[in-house]
Amino acid sequence: MSKELSEIFNFSEITDDCVKCGKCIPVCTIHQINPDEVTSPRGFIELLGQYQNGDLELDKNAKDIFESCFLCTNCVDVCPNSLPTDMVIEEVRADIADKFGIATFKRVFFWLLRHRFAMDMFSKMGYVFKGCMLKSDDKDRGLFARFNLPFIKKGRLLPSMAFTSFLNSHKEHIPAKDSKQKVAIFIGCLGNYNYTNIGSSLLYILEKLNVEVFIPKKQLCCGAPAYFTGDMSSVEYMTTKNIEYFESFMSDYDAMIIPEATCSSMIKHDWERFFANHKMPEWEERAKKLSGKIFMATEWLHSQTNLQDMLAKEGKNIDELVTYHDPCHARKTQDIYTQPRELLSQNYNMIEMSDPNRCCGFGGVTMQTEKFKFAKLAGTPKASMIRDTKASIVSAECSACRVQISESLNDANVETIFKNPIELIAQALGKDEK
Amino acid sequence: MIKDKHINALRDIVGEDNIYSDKAHLIAYSYDATRTKYEPDAVVFPRDEDDISDILKYCNRYKIIITPRGAGSGFTGGALPAHGGIILAMEKHMNKILEIDTQNMVAVVQPAVINMDLQKEAQRHGLFYPPDPASEEYSTLGGNVSENAGGMRAAKYGITKDFVMALRAVRTNGDIIRAGKKTIKDVAGYNTAGILIASEGTLAIISEITLKLIPMPKYKKTYMGIFSDVDSAMNAVFKSLSSGANPVAMEFLDKLVIEALIDKLGVDLPKDAGAVLVGDVDGNVSDEIDFQLKTLEESFKENGATEFRVAKDDDEAKKLWYARKNASQSITIYGNKKLNEDISVPRSMLPEALRNIYKIGEKYGFKVPCFGHAGDGNIHVNVMIDISQLEEGEKAIEEIFQMVVDIGGTLSGEHGIGTSKAPFMGIAFNNEEMNLFRDIKRAFDPNNILNPYKMGL
Fold it and tell me: How far is residue A412 from each of residues A70, A182, A415, measured CA to CA in Å?
């Protein structure tokens, strides 16, 4: 990073814009489980301002506080001035990373995300050797830790690794007969290595719709995990490499579709914001140019194809009760929540949970490891509202939500299983479940 | 600064996880919605009433100042630790709804329950808690009681004090007292709850609140009347109320606010409108709604309303309310700093109060857009200044307060006094009255440790 954070981002400016009304506090995910002003949006903003002024030291205590934010953006949604609390938290995490370093296991993880070949190998090894540390779940929800691992307690449900990743399982070009539409797919890391059925389901749907597909094999991680953890050099690497690559083919395609809320929100909105905050105007412009063609998968399928009619012809052909959870990065940051519901309701009976918009509590890599106690607490109410619906399936277009919700349901002994809406749609169109 | 030994002693009472004196906590508990900042010496989270009692006993012995705090969303500094000491923060543990009693139609709550959470829980039982301060989504009931919060529904249903049946509270000597009962009639003894309401945490710490609930009305409709000036709008208010209309809310916007709404937010209102009245009517039979709307329409038209609108559905209702709900935000076009006060006058004096306010504004060269509760005479006065004109602005405010008191009104309808309005208490109350307040304060808190010097005491 070429510039000091203080030069490129002025926390005290944000602090002065905060009118201290307190509207953000009851909707805040961390404040709901730790009702203390220090872990609330209004508190974060004031503390960041004081840190900027030099009145608050970035010590272990402050680090813990700033790492407790789930980045769910509920606060941004209700703020009368729309203050970007999530963004200032992401930026201070870069300072935390500078000062305290990034834990080795996270550094290894981000390095793997930067290097596709190494990650592919790691994933294969994970598939082969998983039995040593993890045992399979009989309901195919994932894997259980056999014993305590660093930051992972015994008995926790984790996503399985696929032997062959999505990107390595399919041809790069999948033509279609007299197709009028051409799309590229960005799959996301969890979809690539863990939940590979999402990608094959998406291909199945696109084939039915007669859409030509390009699977860009050299795509890297969108950078979200590193961004939320403050590893800004990894973010810079992945975003710029991806942009250069995407520019090489996107002029030939109508859209890049992404069956993942977080990746799509990151690429569509946060790339531009990241470059703006880090005074990289040329890249900001390039990210902005790309963003017009970035869509969440259900969003694009709903508005640009006749999928809904095609599904309507099938009728309510699947006897499962489905409840839809709104990923923070779909509903709050992209205003996408009607599209997946309208598509799913063609073939499934739907039921709303009491608060579908409440954050599942995934919170990012740090929250899932060092701060897992908070993730667990935030997950409990989500699991119980899913239980109350008596739905057999909970769906959300986000694999981070899948990791967290599957674990929360397992922890609460709820039988409901998780599926991406893309998987459910493909199933309604006749794809085998596997 | 309080000594470490005191912090240790308090830690012995509440436990390791419920007391903090690190810099981050001192910063996070230094402010409220006034945006003024005073750092406390420590933040203590009582787990229950017994903790509060032990804390008070200890602090009373060592004369440690205590400021109770709910959501920290007040507009007058009630929750600011203006003289140091400890913040008694209720949000962490004292936040539970203890009971919804459907037979007596009351709710029993801890002080840090958020107003809206009670409204929602009551609704699940077909019941209704009417007080709806603008902060209803985030302010706490303990704060609402301590400031005697109002809201838009006050015109029909009244304010917080009209719903408090009973309180439990802790005195500075640690005594736990009960004030009031679940009974509708209760004449035994002094009305202690009445004294604790609006006492802004200066007399005792409220530990439990019993609130009256009413049946949820089945029907609701939203109306809006447009007038050429404030006088005809107010005449319409008087006429409708005396003709038997009983609207839930009768909110008004003045000409400056209307212009700001049109300019800044493109709200659909006629450019030449001089005043707008907007509100809801509710009831349990649809005939009642029809009667209310007819009475309002007749009274409005008789008094020169140029338009009378009724919302057909929820979406239209939201559109009509949009103007009122965004009034505060729109008027920033008149100045970068807003000095906002919530004066209250007898309903009949509202037109005269507004005329006088505009005159004072003109004298100082400030725009003073006003909106608020026409049904109950509570006006939100906004003196719009440039940040460099603060001193002049405050002079204008003082003149407005004096005028309000002269015509039979008072300093605050809902926000309270706290630190922000303390200097003006002398305008509203004479020495004898202030001395009575001080005597009452001493009777409850002889060592002056509870939120001291607030309210001009």
Answer: 21, 43, 9
